[in-house]
Structures are given as C-alpha cells and as structure tokens.
Task: structure prediction
Amino acid sequence: MSHASAQPLKGPPHIHHMDSVTAYHAAKLGMWLFLATEILLFAVLFTAFAIYRWYNLEEFHAGSHHLNWILGMTNTAVLLFSSFTAALAVDAGQKGNNKAVVKLVGVTIACGAIFLIIKYFEYSSKYHHGYFPGQANYLEFKNFLGLYYCMTGLHALHVIIGMGLLTWVLLKAKKDRFSHDYYTPVEIGALYWHLVDLIWIYLFPLLYLVG
Amino acid sequence: MAHNSHSSHAADHSELGHIIPFAVYRNVLIILLILTIITVAVSRVDFGVLNIVVAMAIASVKAGIVAAYFMHLKYENPIIWIYVLFPIILLFLMMGGIFVDNPTRRDPKIYYEVPAATENQSATNH
Result:
C-alpha cells in the first residue's frame, strides 16, 4: 500500500497491481453493480407509482393529459440519439480515435443540454399554470404530479451528473489519453448515459401517454 | 449468450471489448425511433387496463435493445448478466407483491379522509 501511494497515478497503465485487461474488466463489473443499485433506486419510485395509480386511476389519467406528449416524445428522440452517439464514442475509443471520441461525446453532452432545456420549458409551463407544489391547482393532481416531479427530477439530476461525467471523458480524450487497450472511462461514462436513457424509455409512456 | 471469444468478422478487434459494426448501431437507433412512434400510436388505441401493459412491454423491448447493443450486454460475461438480472428480479418481486396485495385492500382514502365535522379546522392546514 505504501508503495502504491508513494507513486502518483498518471492513469491506469501505471496501476501496477493489475494488468490493463484485468483493470478494464474489474472497472466494468463495478459499473454494472452500480447500475444495478440505480435500477433499484428508480424501482422504488416505479413501485410507488403503481400503488398510487391503483388508488387514483382517474386522477392519473387526467393528470397525464396535462403533460405535453410532443415535448416528451422529442426528449425521447433526443436521448435515444445521444445514446447512439455515446455508443459510437465507445467504438471510437476502442479504436483509439481520440478526435472522434471528443466529437461524439461532445454531441452526447449537447443532447443532454437540449433535453434539460426542453424539461425546463415543461416545468416552467407547469409553474405558470399553477401546477407546482404549493400552488393552487397542484392539489387537483397531487398524487400524479408529486410522482411526476420526483421521477423526472431525479432523472434530470442523473442527466446533469452524466453530462459532468462525459465532460471529464471529453477532457481526457482531448489530451489523447485513450487507446485500444485503455478506454475504460469512455465505456463507463457511456454505460451511465445509457442507463439515463433506459429510465427515460420507461418514464415517457408511463407519465405522458398512459398515466 | 455471452461468449467472450472474438467473432471472426471483427478483424480490427481490440483485445478488451467487442467491436460492433457501425451499421448495427445505426439500425438499432432507427428501430428505437420507430418503436417510440409505435408507443405513441398504440397509446391512442383504447385497450382499457391493457394500455399500460402494452406500453411497458414496448418499453421493455426498447430497453432490451439498448442494453444488448448500445451497452454491449450481448457480448458480456455471465457474471455481468447476473448483475443485470438480480435488480430486475427484485423489482418484479416488489411489483408482484403489490399487484397481488392491492386488490385485497379497501380504498385507503377512508383512513385519512377528514371527518365532516372537523373539516373546517383542518382546512387551515393546507
């Protein structure tokens, strides 16, 4: 341990207690374990949705008609496209093409920003019509809207964290850090981003379409 | 299932992960966008209680495609499959328990509904 801490780490090729193949597979396994806990985190909210929907079916139907499904569908397309560019970024990383990683991760981050801007317009429209917690019309759909804000809010937080993670990947790619035998951060960052997309795939029909 | 040896067509493979041709990623994106449109179209048809089942089924197909190709799950080790399956099994246990339990319960509103006599007092709480 003292030996490892004495030497500053300049990147995984210098981690000397693990060869690069083992380090790659260990990192990926750890990331999948983390994604498993993320699924469970959202599972609680989906379960809460199922319970409250059972008891307030009409409210949920009416509440979901108050959401703009066109904006929701646009955001779905934006996230699917960003997942596509994230997957291509991993492909570029696998081939050691740092310039392509910078471009593709950049597009992915930009898509995340577009998603958040659209989300901002949705939230502010809800606010202006008095459907925010604490406002007059909120109580009309309090169960549905409460879960809507919790689920989309937690998801938006994940989008923001994912954008931060991908910015870190982008900066590393700018410094030419990735090669065919070291692209772990691109893969890990992309895995996180795909999870954000996965959750939205369920949230969109649940909140905007079926209610 | 997950088989870690390299397939013969991937000539320029890296030694770490599986290389998937660009056309596969492109086709996956097109399929995902088509499924999104189908999701919206199907929600316009009234299947009654089955609407949410249909919507969640299509979403699960989309999620499976994203995991298999974008997240490379198709080419991963069985141990990663276990990591993916256990939260899904737990989710189904939790959901399954709730769907079995819910119909046996009375409307919970009767437990917290404000009695008519004290309604004016508690209205100030809002």
Observations:
- Chain B has five helices and no strands.
